[in-house]
Design a protein that fits this description.
alpha/beta; six-stranded mixed beta sheet; 12 strands; elongated
């Protein structure tokens, strides 16, 4: 079957190809008579306009690019990413937008991924899934004035669309509840120190100790290189050398899985353990893992909403949105 082109339509209608393009874009300068001739030719030849070509002609592809960090490739382990992607896809679909997901390769930076996808000229906006101090990605997108939104509180939020949880308050609440249960030596496992989320959770933990008149023991605060089970295992192995340790707050469930593994190996069952993200695997841990549900699907939904509202020039009363968290208490919270 021979594919019908815009040139074929123009020849059948007896007009220029540029006129056919203007008819397809509903240009008001084209007469009704000409429009009718073009549409008759389209119907006769059963012409199907190329949606991407039409979008590019209008500079409106309705495609958003989502930059995923390298650790997101293991979606089955860290459900934050897949839940956030679900929320993004749901909102985008409701507004007839499409999303292309870009995984950052291990040997390249997120900034390189951003530059590469922008250069394709296929996307209208970008969604970032984390923010950090001196963020080169944010600075680059601001400098070239390219539309973007981000999950995570930026250092300087002026003119930036962002969504996040109140990570400070969430961790403050957990630490306070542990203190109320009688815990006096609460370990903390964070990861990637320069992420603003990591800093907020650490500060919430420290503030809870200070407010309750407890000293901060830097020896039981450990920062992992990344959010992985192996890193959680290594960090907890260092923590349990402190005999007085009675609880651990891990800033991600994956870190907590690693912590649980070493605790089982060492036959330690009197340390309270709490994670973040409330993944599906939490309930199958032994004992089931207590965790903070950060509602990642809502984070994805609203970060997409803010960006599309900007692209559609909709009136938006806010440039950011805070998604509520919920503490899910399970048997590991002792």
């Amino acid at each position: 079957m021979v594919k019908v082109t815009i040139k074929d339509v123009a020849k059948e209608a007896g007009v220029a190809t540029s006129t056919v393009s203007r008819v397809l874009s509903n240009n008001s300068k084209i007469s009704d008579e000409t429009k009718e001739k073009v549409h008759k030719a389209i119907d006769k030849l059963n012409y199907k306009p190329n949606a991407i070509a039409r979008s590019l002609a209008k500079n409106k592809t309705r495609i958003l690019g989502v930059i995923l960090p390298s650790e997101a490739q293991d979606l089955l382990v860290n459900s934050f990413f897949i839940n956030a992607m679900k929320g993004m896809s749901l909102y985008a679909q409701s507004k007839n937008y499409y999303i292309t997901y870009v995984f950052t390769k291990e040997n390249e930076t997120e900034l390189e991924s951003i530059k590469e996808i922008i250069n394709t000229n296929l996307i209208e906006g970008i969604i970032l899934l984390r923010s950090k101090e001196n963020d080169q990605c944010i600075n680059y997108l601001k400098n070239i004035n390219f539309p973007f939104s981000i999950i995570g509180r930026p250092e300087d939020s002026e003119g930036i669309l962002w969504v996040d949880n109140d990570n400070f308050q969430a961790t403050y609440n957990i630490a306070t509840r542990l203190i109320e249960k009688g815990h006096k030596n609460i370990g903390f496992i964070g990861a990637i120190e320069n992420l603003n989320m990591s800093k907020d959770r650490l500060n919430g933990y420290k503030m809870a100790l200070e407010v309750n008149g407890m000293s901060i023991n830097e020896n039981i605060i450990i920062h992992a290189k990344d959010f992985t089970e192996d890193e959680g295992y290594i960090c907890t192995k260092k923590l349990i050398k402190h005999n007085e340790l009675s609880a651990i707050i891990a800033t991600d469930d994956v870190l907590a899985f690693g912590a649980r593994k070493i605790l089982k190996e060492e036959d330690i069952d009197n340390i309270s353990l709490v994670g973040f993200n409330d993944t599906q695997l939490d309930k199958y841990q032994t004992p089931p893992l207590a965790s903070v549900n950060i509602n990642a699907d809502e984070l994805g939904y609203h970060v997409t909403r803010l960006l599309i509202e900007k692209l559609e020039n909709s009136e938006c009363k806010c440039s950011h949105f805070i998604v509520k968290t919920e503490f899910i208490e399970r048997e590991s919270f002792i």
